[in-house]
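Working notes for the structural subgroup meeting. M.R. asked for a predicted model of this chain before we commit to crystallization trials. I am recording the input and output together here so anyone reviewing the notebook later can reproduce the run.

Input as submitted:
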Amino acid sequence: MLKHLEQQLAEREAQSLRRHRRTAETACAPLQTVTAHDGPPRELLAFCSNDYLGLANHPLLIEALAEGARRYGAGSGASHLVSGHSRAHALLEDDLAEMLSPQGPELRALTFCTGYMANLALLTALGDAETTIYADLLNHASLIDGARLAKAAVYTYPHNDLAGLERRIAACSTPRKLIVTDGVFSMDGDLAHLPELLALAERHDAYLIVDDAHGFGVLGAQGRGVLSHVGLCSERLICMGTLGKAAGVAGAFVAAHRTVIDWLVQSARAYIYTTAQPPAVAHAVSASLRLIRSDEGAQRRRHLATLIAAFRRGVPEVLGDLMSARGWQLAESQTAIQPLIVGRSDDALALSAALELQGLWVPAIRPPTVPSGSARLRITFSAAHGLGDVERLLLALVQAGKGMT
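Returned structure, recorded in token form:
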């Protein structure tokens, strides 16, 4: 087996697809000290985290985490259904339900350790043998894996292809149907056509599952997420959101009609058979939700929007000629995820490495995470960045691009 694995690793290396970890020596922030797998620690200006509101190192959340540990200890000790469901978890679920209540009066929330576990729980608990799952081609890996593990039949439709989806779902004969999509697509930054998807679900007696990992906290009124952003409210909506991105802490939740939540508690194996997240983490997330909904949260969202607009305005002004010569494309995204599509994996790696030589940390994303031929720099912005950081990134991209052979 070892020989086979070594051969597979060598093949990935030859195709510029091998992954390497880095070690962050300091807290998540725009300026971060990082140790690469083959070099000394360096301070880098990072455009790669999902800390969209810059809350991961916020002093109020640090204190809330410490307070939670003093009150509840370090760990939960067991699964939620044994003895691990603490008052901190219960309060967090109430806070989430109250925050998202405009989505429906019977809405309840259930918390998970990670978004990956939440999606596995959702799709395996709801995707039984009498259900068909309709999944967008560019869905996150957790949704893909959840659909694979479910007993349901699975149909993958081309990205945002509503006409093709409707033709397929209209011919469906199973008693239950689930449409499953990212709200904000994590590698492209674009939004699903959610109003049209919900209308389609209503016409064909289906339910719509929305992964709002990259919208919650950033989009919508008071950061309620992508469903608020597009003004949707329906009992047919099931929303998953993560708490380690814009919320700055860790964990995830599912928000849905109380009956769906009750069913997950009874049948979702990824919820039932795992130790609950530390109560201190849940306590810190409740503090984060208050920040997100506060005036400070609103100011951070406005500043983030200013950074995104400055970058998108600056790309054609500063990089236009270079992008035309190189064949690069900036994806059509108005979110904090701003992918610069380069094409070949080796070119994306070379561009990322050239930026690092200038003190910038911008990761190259390659297949199979993205389709073949669409390797890219996944540039992400945080409210902790400043306009000067955007200018530095644009100028560094020019210098890196000109230096590539």
